[in-house]
Q: What sequence folds into this?
């Protein structure tokens, strides 16, 4: 069987060359799709439910005569959780769009050291392969997830910004470096 020579990040690190360069910006619907693929909204719903349960439990009182429930506090917990789940997801997407605007005009470079935002040949922000934990693939994009300390971050790489061979190459590079989520 013939060995296909796929440009791997190890080769890029050894030669100092760039494996893949992506130019363009991510749209709001792509951020939302990326957050969904990475499971961020699922975690948000769990957080809202846990907060609502905690507030509702504050409205329950048990003593030797029986128990009582403060219906107003339970209702406030349910309404608060619903509002939090709806507003927080929009806030996350808006924050991601604002963060992207700071990198407007930059290119995304995938090489042997990791993924970097580069403007005028200088790294603005570089994330090494060691801080990336997994990636998710949807029909429209790749989502790389990582973390440092208690912070979780994600990087959305739309396939529409890539040619078909480059999209396959990016998938192969991510497969070789990260686990699929």
A:
């Amino acid at each position: 069987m013939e060995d296909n020579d796929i440009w791997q990040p190890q080769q890029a690190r050894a030669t100092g060359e760039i494996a893949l360069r992506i130019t363009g910006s991510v749209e709001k619907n792509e951020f939302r799709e990326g957050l969904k693929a990475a499971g961020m909204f699922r975690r948000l719903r769990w957080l809202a439910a846990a907060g609502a349960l905690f507030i509702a439990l504050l409205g329950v009182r048990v003593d030797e005569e029986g128990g009582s429930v403060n219906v107003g506090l339970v209702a406030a917990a349910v309404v608060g959780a619903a509002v939090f789940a709806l507003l927080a997801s929009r806030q996350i997407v808006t924050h991601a769009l604002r963060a992207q605007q700071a990198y407007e005009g930059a290119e995304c470079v995938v090489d042997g050291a990791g993924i970097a935002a580069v403007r005028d040949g200088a790294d603005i922000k570089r994330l090494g392969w060691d801080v990336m934990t997994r990636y998710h693939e949807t029909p429209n994009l790749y989502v790389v997830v990582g973390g440092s300390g208690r912070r979780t971050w994600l990087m959305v790489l739309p396939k529409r910004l890539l040619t078909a061979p480059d999209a396959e190459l990016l998938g192969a590079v991510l497969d070789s470096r990260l686990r699929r989520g």
Q: What stands out?
A: The radius of gyration is 22 Å. The beta strands are 20-23, 60-63, 66-69, 107-111, 114-119, 122-128, 132-137, 141-148, 151-158, 179-180. Confidence is low (pLDDT under 50) at residues 1-16. The chain has five helices and ten strands.
